[in-house]
Specification:
globular
Length: 135
């Protein structure tokens, strides 16, 4: 399977090298594409208490927001991990991605090839969405 956004996947592969994973030794890189073409990257950053560990996908989203980008301005995310099978975002990341990015393509790749491209709606078919709560 291939994905046309080569730069996005390359950015996720490159940022993976910056992951701080002294406990799991499982480095992950993510690259988020803004609708104007900019790419924002993130890598996982582990903490000894594990619960405070940040996933690459959430780092990329938070970094994009902190740089002035707004929710629903993103067109795709690539996630790279060194696994044989595609490594999709965890549940918390799926929720964050849904809230900030909507139904974008999620490209799952290894250091050498794209393994899958899935829609967020396929990864999180019944998301919690606060925008639909009545006040």
């Amino acid at each position: 399977m291939t994905f046309a956004d080569v730069d996005l996947v390359a950015a996720a592969r490159a940022v993976r090298a910056h992951a701080w994973a002294p406990f799991s030794h499982f480095a992950v890189g993510a690259a988020l594409r803004h609708r104007d073409g900019r790419i924002v990257t993130g890598c996982n950053v582990e903490n000894a208490t594990y619960g405070l560990t940040l996933c690459a996908e959430r780092v990329a989203v938070v970094k994009a927001i902190s740089e002035g980008m707004r929710p629903d301005e993103f067109t795709a995310i690539a996630v790279v991990a060194d696994t044989d099978e595609p490594t999709p975002p965890c549940g918390a990341c799926r929720q964050i991605l849904w809230e900030f990015c909507g139904n974008i393509p999620v490209v799952l790749a290894t250091p050498t090839e794209v393994r899958a491209v899935l829609a967020m709606a396929d990864l999180l078919p019944r998301p919690f969405d606060a925008r639909f709560l009545s006040t």
